């Protein structure tokens, strides 16, 4: 449906060519100082027409606050946000009256609802994500102010071009077999450093939003090549979340990583999601993959963190040694953790101008060469969407845990239970 979250509830509305798109956000803590500028920053990072690597659709995507905020302060009531669709060109889509676009959502929406928006992707368009990005910006303001939480996403690959540490070959044993005990050396110290310190300002230095300049240049060429060939190309986004408290996530069906996965895979064009050691963890023996417990600076901790800061679906508050598919994160302060949503895979956009042999809605074979303005690669614009969905998940899980802890704190202290049932003091 169109609503996500339990306490921080985000409902988005709007189609690609209707009058406006936006969101209703329920559950924002009252008293949070909020202005349109807080929200606009992320919307402007998401908007089309930012560079020659994105769709030329020219939308300013200026947010209008409709409700829930007065004199720069959240009232605790539903926040209504609206962004006008201004640069519609519905006639660009006349071919798709006959042909459902291969691998787009035209056919499935029609099958499901029996009717569909008259032009463009309708609700399946990435215009829908404007509401998410706006809601994420509000959540982030609270998360940063109260917890110092930082969320930074960046482009980690376009096509087969990846950040350098991702392309380093696995180490080899003398007999030529891949050495599954030696898993650290695929990681460059530079990349560890990057993940520990990366900021949005650094990410935005290059239009690809890849923070490694040489790789970013190669990615640019790859996207331009797809564009010139009237084709498209996919990619991945990596997201780092820093300074998250322990205890978040609701076993068993709403485990933290399950909520992250749902959030990320609800973004249009996503095809894959990995958290913690991800698929890489399947290649490492348990003796290497387990995170042994140790007492560090008086705090019960783990030596490594292949778990990605989540165990049993609950954030563990660990110093994090976090390995993405091919990456590594340096330790953090005790009591805080770092999670990467590595990697969120985005497919090559479906709409391409290159002629494609396909079939009309009535089954007649034919050739579709789609007109219209499209992203040759979505990942540079997907970065703020990934950050927004991470912020919405965190905000919701935090508010759920707050409710539980507050309710428990009203009870008298427990004195009757055996000590093995309580948190031991270190
Ligand atoms: C930021 C962003 C921009 C997108 N731009 C386009 C586009 O220009 N053309 C296109 O065909 N798909 C684009 N998509 C993807 C479609 O919205 C998506 O593929 C479509 O809704 C079908 O859904 P699915 O790919 O998740 O199955 C974009 C996605 C994102 C996240």
TrEMBL record:
<keyword id="KW-0057">Aromatic amino acid biosynthesis</keyword>
<dbReference type="InterPro" id="IPR000453">
    <property type="entry name" value="Chorismate_synth"/>
</dbReference>
<dbReference type="GO" id="GO:0009073">
    <property type="term" value="P:aromatic amino acid family biosynthetic process"/>
</dbReference>
<dbReference type="GO" id="GO:0008652">
    <property type="term" value="P:amino acid biosynthetic process"/>
</dbReference>
<dbReference type="InterPro" id="IPR035904">
    <property type="entry name" value="Chorismate_synth_AroC_sf"/>
</dbReference>
<comment type="subunit">
    <text>Homotetramer.</text>
</comment>
<dbReference type="GO" id="GO:0005829">
    <property type="term" value="C:cytosol"/>
</dbReference>
<dbReference type="Pfam" id="PF01264">
    <property type="entry name" value="Chorismate_synt"/>
</dbReference>
<dbReference type="GO" id="GO:0009423">
    <property type="term" value="P:chorismate biosynthetic process"/>
</dbReference>
<dbReference type="GO" id="GO:0010181">
    <property type="term" value="F:FMN binding"/>
</dbReference>
<dbReference type="GO" id="GO:0004107">
    <property type="term" value="F:chorismate synthase activity"/>
</dbReference>
<dbReference type="InterPro" id="IPR020541">
    <property type="entry name" value="Chorismate_synthase_CS"/>
</dbReference>
<keyword id="KW-0028">Amino-acid biosynthesis</keyword>
<comment type="similarity">
    <text>Belongs to the chorismate synthase family.</text>
</comment>
<keyword id="KW-0456">Lyase</keyword>
<comment type="pathway">
    <text>Metabolic intermediate biosynthesis; chorismate biosynthesis; chorismate from D-erythrose 4-phosphate and phosphoenolpyruvate: step 7/7.</text>
</comment>
<protein>
    <recommendedName>
        <fullName>Chorismate synthase</fullName>
        <ecNumber>4.2.3.5</ecNumber>
    </recommendedName>
</protein>
